[in-house]
Specification:
Elements (H helix, E strand, L loop, with lengths): L15 H14 L8 E2 L1 H8 L3 H13 L3 E4 L3 E4 L4 H22 L1
Antiparallel strand pairs: 1-3, 2-3
Length: 105
């Protein structure tokens, strides 16, 4: 399991759940939490000095976005990057960039 390092101190004026979600989402997108890494509600809650409920809520939102996989009785894992998805995104990006170059030229 990987250590969750809070990027900043949690704000007292904003709900904890959305803050935990943003921290985890950023760490996944920045690859600070590697694809395939197992992440633990209890460890994250302990590292942020909060209860497990906001972490559970963040996991649900991250799962809805496809950033984590929650496997009942087995754990929560950062979703692995799909080669097919990367190729699809690359194709779309190249098409958009080529169109922009044509318009500019």
């Amino acid at each position: 399991m990987q250590n969750i390092k809070p990027q900043r101190v949690l704000s007292a004026i904003e709900a904890v759940g959305p803050q935990v979600y943003r921290i985890l989402r950023e760490q996944i997108i920045q690859a600070e939490l590697a694809p395939g890494a197992r992440i633990s509600e209890a460890e994250i809650a302990r590292s942020l000095s909060i209860s497990r409920q906001p972490v559970r809520e963040a996991f649900i939102k991250l799962a809805e976005e496809g950033l984590v996989q929650v496997l009942p009785q087995r754990g929560t894992y950062v979703t692995r990057i799909s080669t097919a998805s990367v190729m699809d995104v690359r194709f779309v990006r190249e098409a958009i960039e080529a169109d922009i170059v044509r318009q500019v030229a």
